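User: Can you recover a sequence for this backbone? Please restate the input before giving your answer.

Assistant: Of course. Working from this structure:
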């Protein structure tokens, strides 16, 4: 309704107005000023509207899901006719049956989703120096309220679309004693949403747009991907894409390959990369994908990762985990967060990949894919110390080279 307009009472709703803000970090285009937008919303009849200014260095588009994580045995999977390690979409009724079977078991709920895990980890690693926001759709149920509250507590601005008469999506993450995860997704409100004008403005002023590959699963979200990427390219915002899951890649391989020429950074594991280009190993897959994407990062489990930047390939070893591996859920999300943190803090791609490996190593030794604040602070401090040491070494090396050139010049003049 414009500046000064009142929020409509009677349910979750929003009005938008424009403001102007200042970035704390230099944008890719070199500008120091950006336009931010303010959301005024109300939570019910008679509720007071609150104003939140969103300044985004990194904007993520993904499924807003609540993760319901539980440890089960192989007998449970057999009883419910589930294939270990699979990821598939289930209906609302199937979800009810799965959760009923977990009655009496310990079930851990978090505001999850692959992209949400990455953005929360990135925000916590940045410790207030990287502004992160996520756009997604939630229902008007209790889980939707829970997701919004969790994002707010994690310092990730959530630009949400409330869809009346729908339920918030969930992912049942079932982990067996061998640390393998079976993921059952009930999409819910995330099945379709668009890119409204305020979100387009946020994308236009951000440094990077990160798109979750799971969005290809629904036709409505697939359309939103093309709109968001076109808007980002128009305003010179870098675009990163996560492959998300090998089954998603197999079903939507042509769509992935068609989008790659418009992507700046691609995150994939070995299985996902192989599904895209059918190369022999992770390194070959990364090299093949780099022909259409400037920066390709392919993880390969214990064998580390392969990073190809503008034709130059690098192998980065996995970070040693000094504790038993508890859960593989979220390790890839954490790795992507570490790489994005490195890129946002001006590290070279190899140093950023080392950060990603270290963050993934921490998540592997815990239950759930969410990086804790304590671990994030420790990792960020370690990375900062290493970065300072590298800069000092570079300065000493540059000084030595300059002194050597001066000495050679002097000797030449004497001769």
């Amino acid at each position: 309704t414009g500046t000064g307009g009142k929020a409509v009472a009677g349910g979750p709703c929003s009005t938008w107005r424009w403001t102007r803000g200042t970035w704390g970090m230099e944008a890719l285009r070199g500008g120091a000023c950006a336009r931010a937008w303010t959301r005024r919303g109300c939570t019910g009849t008679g509720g007071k509207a609150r104003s939140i200014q969103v300044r985004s260095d990194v904007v993520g588009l993904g499924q807003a899901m609540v993760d319901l994580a539980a440890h089960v045995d192989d007998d449970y999977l057999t009883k419910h006719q589930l294939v270990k390690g699979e990821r598939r979409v289930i209906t609302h009724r199937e979800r009810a049956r799965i959760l009923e079977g977990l009655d009496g078991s310990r079930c851990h709920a978090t505001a999850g989703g692959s992209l949400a895990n990455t953005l929360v980890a990135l925000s916590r690693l940045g410790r207030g120096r990287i502004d992160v926001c996520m756009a997604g759709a939630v229902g008007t149920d209790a889980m939707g309220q829970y997701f919004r509250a969790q994002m707010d507590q994690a310092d990730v601005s959530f630009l949400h679309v409330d869809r009346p008469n729908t339920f918030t999506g969930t992912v049942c993450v079932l982990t067996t004693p061998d640390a393998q995860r079976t993921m059952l997704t009930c999409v819910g409100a995330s099945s379709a949403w668009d890119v409204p004008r305020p979100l387009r403005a946020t994308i236009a002023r951000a440094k990077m747009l990160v798109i979750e590959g799971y969005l290809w699963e629904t036709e409505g979200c697939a359309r939103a991907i093309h709109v968001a990427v076109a808007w980002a390219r128009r305003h010179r915002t870098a675009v990163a894409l996560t492959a998300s899951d090998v089954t998603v890649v197999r079903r939507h391989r042509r769509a992935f390959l068609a989008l790659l020429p418009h992507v700046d950074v691609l995150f994939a594991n070995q299985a996902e990369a192989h599904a895209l280009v059918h190369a022999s190993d992770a390194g070959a897959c990364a090299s093949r994908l780099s022909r259409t994407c400037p920066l390709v990062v392919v993880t390969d489990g214990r064998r580390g990762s392969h990073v190809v930047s503008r034709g130059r390939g690098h192998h980065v070893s996995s970070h040693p985990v000094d504790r038993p591996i508890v859960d593989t859920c979220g390790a890839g999300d954490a790795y992507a967060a570490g790489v994005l943190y490195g890129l946002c803090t001006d590290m070279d791609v190899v140093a950023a990949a080392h950060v990603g490996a270290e963050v993934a190593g921490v998540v592997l030794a815990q239950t759930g894919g969410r990086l804790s604040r304590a671990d994030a602070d420790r990792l960020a401090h370690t990375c900062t110390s290493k970065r300072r040491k590298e800069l000092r070494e570079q300065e000493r090396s540059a000084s030595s080279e300059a002194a050597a050139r001066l000495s050679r010049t002097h000797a030449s003049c004497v001769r």
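That completes the design. The chain is about 40% helix and 25% strand.
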